[in-house]
Amino acid sequence: MKKIIGLLMISAFILVGCGGNDKKSEEKEDSIKLKSSQPEKEVKEKQDGVSEVYLTGNDKMKYNKTEIRVEEGDKVVLTFEHVGTMSVETMGHNFVLLKKGTDVQEFGQKAAEAQDNNYIPEDTEAIIVHTEMLGGGEKTEITFQAPEKGKYDYVCSFPGHLALMRGVFVVE
Hints:
This protein has two domains: 1-37; 43-171, Immunoglobulin-like. Helix content is 28%, strand content 28%. It is built from three helices and nine strands; from the N terminus they run H-E-E-E-E-H-E-H-E-E-E-E. A hairpin with a 2-residue loop joins strand 1 (45-47) and strand 2 (50-57). It is globular, with a radius of gyration of 24 Å.
């Protein structure tokens, strides 16, 4: 009798263990499906001298891209969306494309002092183009001509964000 109870207990442990692994396996498959089914709008599209770029910022102070590539002279249509939920006052985000050679830290200090102008310094020539500052759930679009070939920094100018929210805009 003890052997039968022992075998039943071992069988129960094995079944529970397998059941748990199946669930983890299903969860893993679901997360893989989610990762592989990225929305098409996140992919840069190139058509007849126009590069369409979809960039997001979130409540964890992250852009979805750390590099954007376009061709020199292209018309760039950049859609920027704050996919988080926090307000513009708490966790505002923007896209600021800086000229080559700009000291990013120095720019960030000037931007932090420009609260009355949505953290865009008025006394700088370092900016090529920028979006407005957005809060969670907001979206904007800007159109501009890609500058000459080279690498340019882009940042979020909200105070403290450029430490994490920055990337390289590559013009080929």
